[in-house]
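Possible regression after last week's pipeline update?

I re-ran a chain I had predicted before the update to compare outputs. Posting the input and the new output here so someone can diff against the archived version. Not blocking, just want to make sure nothing changed silently.
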Amino acid sequence: MLRKWMLLTRSEPLLKGCTVSRSYGIDIEALCADEMRLWYINLLRTAEERMVPVTDIAAKVQLTVDAVSGHPVVTLPVNCIRALSVTLAGWERPAPVIGPDTRTARMQVNPFACGGVCRPVAVLRPGGREIELFSAPTDPSSARIASLQAVMDPGDDTYTFSEDAIATIKEIFRQPAAQAGLEW
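New output (post-update):
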């Protein structure tokens, strides 16, 4: 992946007929590896679902009941980059995970406007590690997660994505020389 990254970002010489060696300066490979890792984490956070691997992590999470609100709360694993949807047993459809600052999230305090089993609501709590489920059964302690779709980080040296995502790699020298400040 590093060689492909260096070719796409113009960090690797395209001609194979010459050899370049140096014993000083910055480590280009380490710099490119860091750039590549940052690009990949950003891709996992922001790309369309079709571009990144989506995993069902229902068996890997813990469901507890919040002592204050009484709603079920899912604690996400550390390597979970983004939760996409949650389904509890008994729900008619999955609930997309929404942010706490959305209108739908704020409506959950109203008993007449909150979601139900036909239109469930799952809100990501501030901090991004917990999801509060508002459309729980009558007894929240009996709630069981049927599915939790998420984008997970596979680890430092593993990169899994659709080939369409390669188009999101920006070349370092894509812009004209004058805009990059390289013109003399």
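Follow-up from reviewer: compared with the archived run. The mean pLDDT is 83. Marking as no regression found.
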